Amino acid sequence: MLPLDAIPGLNGFVLFFALPCMLYRFGASTPIVQLLDVNLFFAYLLCALLMVGFVVATSLNARIRWNDASFGALVGAFPNTGFMGVPLLVALLGSAAAGSAIVTIVVDMVITTSLCIALSRLDGADEHGASRAVKNALKGVLTNPMPWAISLGALSSATGYELIGPFAKTLGLLADAASPVALFTIGAVLARSQIRVKESGHSPILWRDYLPVALFKLVLHPILVLLVLTTAVQLGFAMERFSIMVVVLVAALPSASNVALLSERFAADTGRIALIILVTTAAAFFTFSGAVALLHG
């Protein structure tokens, strides 16, 4: 049995080694032209910002403060694009789907994640002052390795730089380890949260703290993306119908598993985040299939 004190070590391995390597590889292997699809980028970014604001506003209460609400918003706005979406959409729609999906990864990894980490540092702003809260927010953003990794990958793509053999193989091994280790860590976090509830005698996580966010992710998010992107086209912004379909299907994916690792890193309620990921992943078997049937059928 895995000891509970080993979970932070696994979490650190994924966050600071495996995931950054996977994101660097994504950025370096994607043509820079695809990464710079400006209309698609900003339309999807608007959807992400609206989702974050809505989930934070509906989550904040006496029990859920900024830290937990912010990571709940991230798990409600961040699809599992890297681990699940890209291979699944390429299999369904062909290799052309990868470019649009990777644009959404850039938005979620660089901006949405950084925003939610910054918001999570706002707890205690009334007690310690706004300046300290801002410093904590900036520190949280700057110490997040994922935006740096994908930015370096994009720079490598733009300059044509390639890692030499041994370094490229090591990076590939770490990148391939990201998904299975992350999923294992999420399972361990769920088990740990149940053990702690039993040991402490505290009440378990309430359904109203995680089911609404799961519903927002699987239903509200893809509908919002569809409405925003089609409205942008009607306003004259150039976007291909195929790209719109890909991005809507990305939004219909379950929540990203790496959010649980980030919430563990920043001491949020990881059990709640892991439950949202678990519920969306199980329910997406039906909801994502329905979205594919409606959009692609």
Termini gap: 45 Å
Largest sheet: none
pLDDT averaged over residues: 80
Q: How much of the residues is beta strand, in percent?
A: under 5%
What would you say the CATH architecture is?
Up-down Bundle
Q: How many individual domains?
A: 1
Q: How many H/I helical runs?
A: 14
The percent of residues in helical segments reads: over 70%
Secondary structure: number of strands: 0
Indicate the structural class.
mainly alpha
Give the oligomer, counting copies of the same chain as homo and different chains as hetero. Answer: single chain
CATH class identity: Mainly Alpha
Order of helices and strands: HHHHHHHHHHHHHH
Radius of gyration: 19 Å
What does this protein structure show overall?
Helices cover 79% and strands 0% of the residues. The protein has helices at residues 7-29, 32-35, 38-59, 66-77, 81-93, 97-120, 125-128, 130-142, 145-159, 165-200, 211-234, 241-251, 258-265, 270-296. Helix 1 (7-29) runs antiparallel to helix 10 and helix 3 (38-59) crosses helix 4 (66-77). The longest helix is centred in the middle third of the chain and has 36 residues, at 165-200. It is globular, with a radius of gyration of 19 Å. The mean pLDDT is 80.
